Amino acid sequence: xxxxxxxxxxxxxxxxxxxxxxxxxxxxxxxxxVAIRKLEEEVGTPLFEREARGVRLTPAGHAALDAARRCLxxxxxxITRARLAADGDEGTLRIGVIGSVIFxxxxxxxxxxxxxxxxxxxxxxxxxxxxxxxxxxxxxxDAGFVRVPTTRVSGVQLLMIEEDVFCVAMPLTHPLTxxxxxxxxxxxxxPFIGYSPSRAGGLHAAVTLLLRRANITPxxxxxxxxxxxxIGLVESGLGVALVPQINVAHxxxxxxxxxxxxxxxxxxxxxxFAYRETNETPPAKRFREMVGATKVRQGKF
Length: 301
Known about the structure:
301 residues, alpha/beta, Arc Repressor Mutant, subunit A, D-Maltodextrin-Binding Protein, domain 2, 3 domains, six-stranded mixed β-sheet, 13 strands, rod-shaped
C-alpha cells in the first residue's frame, strides 16, 4: 500500500465519483479505477459500491477513510519533523555549564536560543571544566561553557566569548578594603582561598600562574571548586580570593571587591564555548552559530 493510493482513495470518497476524482487528481479515469481496484484487493474487501451515478462507501470504506486521513497526516508530520530536525529546529541539545556562567552568560544565550528554536529540548547540566570537556569528547554532551585557560581535548574546539581578569574578593572588615585598587604584592602572606586542582586547568591553573609570575606566596586556608563557593568562604571571613572580575555583578554585595592591577597578560582568563569538531548535531550547530555571532564581552569592574 502506497501513500499515492490512499490519496486516490480519499479523492474518490470525497468526490463520490471516479470521473470527478480523476479530474481533481489530474489523471485519466481508467488508471484511477484500476488503482482503487488494486487497493481493494490488497485490503481484501470492497471499499466502494459502484452505482450508475457514482460511488458510495461501504462500511469497510468508511472505516478505511478515517484511517487513511490519519495516515496522510502522520506521513506529512514525518516529513515536517525530519526537515525540522535536519535544520536544527527540533531535537535535543545537551549543554554543560560551569557555575560561573549560570547567572550571566547562560540566561542570555538560553533565552535567545529557546525563542528561535522552541521545539528543541534543552538539557543543561552544571559541571566542572574537566567533566564538560570529557563529556564532549565521548559524545554525552553537545556543547559547553568552560573556563579558560583549560587543557585542550582532542576533537573539541573552543570559541572565546568572554575575556576577563581577576579581582580580589575580601571580607568587608579586611584592612585592604581601605585601598581602591590592589596589586599582587598586597596578597603576600594573606589568608588565601584558592581553587581545587583540575585535570582540565581552569581557575586553579590561572591563579597558580598569576601568583607564580608575581612571586607571591599567600597562606592557603581553603580550596573551592567553583567561584560561588570561594565567595561564600570569603563572606565567612576565612580569607581573600581571586575571582573573575566579570562575575562581581552577580555576587553577594556583603563582600568587598577591588580591581587587581599589574596582572601579567598571560594570566588573563575568560569563558569559551566548547563544541565537538565532528559529528555536530544540527541543534548544536545552530547554537554555536548564535554564540559565534555574539560580540566578545570584556570584564569590567
